[in-house]
Amino acid sequence: MYLTQGLHRALQCTPEAPATIYGDRTRTFREHIDRIARLAAGLHSLGVTSGDRVAMLSLNSDRYAEYLLAIPWSDAVLNPVNIRWSPAEIAYSINDSGTKVLIVDDAFAAAVPALRGACPNLTTIVYAGENDASEGAVLYEELIATHDPVEDARRSGEQLAGIFYTGGTTGFPKGVMLSHTNMVTSAAGTVATGELLSGAARFLHAAPMFHLADLAAWAGQVMLGGPHIIVPFFEPVAVLEAIEQHRPTDVLLVPTMLQLLVDHPSVSEYDLSAMQRILYGGSPIGEGLANRVLTMFPGVRMTQAYGMTEVAPVASLLLPDDHEGATLRSGGQAAPHSELRIVDIDGNPVPTGTVGEICVRGGHVMQGYWNKPAETAAVLRDGWYHTGDGGYLDENGFVYVVDRLKDMIVTGGENVYSAEVESALSKHPAVAQSAVIGLPSETWGETVHAVVILAAGAEVSAEELQAFCKEHIAGYKTPRSVEFVAAIPMSGAGKILKRELREAQAERS
């Protein structure tokens, strides 16, 4: 199995079909593959050899789609850079991975001088933009225009496909090593449900293409040979316009993005009837938001994916027919390519309904963390990946994620799972979003603290929210303090950065 395999099928079967659609630029599979093979040759001319890492720091584009395939075509290794990181974090990932070649677009060209200074082994910058290149950079389009296509190296199987750095929600980024088998297994297993993509699917890339959530859908679409419709980044109007103009059938979004779409005042003005399937992840979706999405996209089928970078990234799927009742709060059942189990602190399986650590096994589980054998050994044990997520399985195999184990709050000797408190808060009509963390307390060890974003035009006091929570959860789980904010820090994957919330509280105390 290898990521470029679908290209050869498409060239044989549908060479004149659209492969990428980006703004007013459409390229067929014949054109797409020719550019990929020429870019691979250009990379060879820059000294890229087997196993070398090539990074890309860019917004979504058709060139990003070419990068994702030209790197394995050239027998090299992907290193897609998180575009929301600070310069120091970007430099860390480049240095840690030993990346020598970095491709940048217009949005990040200004960062090149600082990265050159911070990354002594970064020998080559390739400029993939529309404006003038920065000094000393190689032109992406010239690499393609001045080199003859080379044969696909067919890098495959257990060979390393990419190093994907974690979003940093729990600490310093780690480079997750995923093989071609890992990535194709996760994509194929997800597609096998019949609830994502099809032979006639048109996939919209609105989530960041550096992230494994979007890349899993991308890999599935490459296998099936359908077109990739691409917008530079998520912005409600751009997404709505792309849906109306290019009529995609499938998209991946996080609940925050879905909320922004349904809340947009102009949403009713767009023809969204082409959309058939929505894959979402990052967190479960509330019943109210789910109903609004289904109203906005008549007939659409929604699937939730639970997973993480380390499992390339899909562990379980909540399929459309299970989006009702109690299961709506779950992460679904094990995906076709995945096994799940819950274990106690000693690694022993626990009974159904008992909270423990969620573990995952299958061909999609990472090879390990780049240059971090101790961290790898801590999470890969006896063939199982230990996720660090607390959860339980019900009698039908639905997994319920109650919290990151490291985010569990211990107050007065009682364990409080922040997800349960957040669920209670979400039921109040004045709450648009919340994040719950533990604050240090000499008396209780920790106290429950809620950070809340109010819905537009809504007003509510902390006391009212506390009283409301007590109607739904135990008193010791109810927030002792409530903070109202305009925004909550999010990772590039759309996950709440609770570490940053804790750090901000620590600075104020």
UniProtKB/TrEMBL annotation:
The keyword Ligase applies. This is Long-chain fatty acid--CoA ligase. Residues 8-370 form the AMP-dependent synthetase/ligase domain. NCBIfam families: PRK06187.1. Residues 420-495 form the AMP-binding enzyme C-terminal domain. PROSITE patterns: AMP_BINDING. Pfam families: AMP-binding, AMP-binding_C. Keywords: Ligase. GO terms for molecular function: ligase activity. It comes from Rhodococcus artemisiae.
